[in-house]
Amino acid sequence: MVCQSELLLTVHCKSKNGDLGFHDIATGGTWEFSFRPNFFGRTLYFCSLSWPGQFRRFDIYVQSRDKCQNCLWNISPDYPCRLSFKTKEIVQCYPWNSPTQLGSKPPI
Prior knowledge:
Mean pLDDT: 86
Order of helices and strands: EEEEEEEE
């Protein structure tokens, strides 16, 4: 995950089986995690992402959607975009999850 904002990005990612904790990412900074996808094809990791005055949620890894082994994301307040691991070029951008998905308030 690469932060492309001029503001500090706070990330909190988890799956139903594990919490990856809170991480602060500075402009141009990166954060990564690894895991083994579920044999049944149902692996899901979701993240809350916040900047001063702004809060978003996004499913950062959906096994049925993301066919990458090394998924690389460019995160900006506008949208999350998956990048090519080799070329670092944008493959596809996605909308943020709606505020009603997984609740509408940031975790405390």
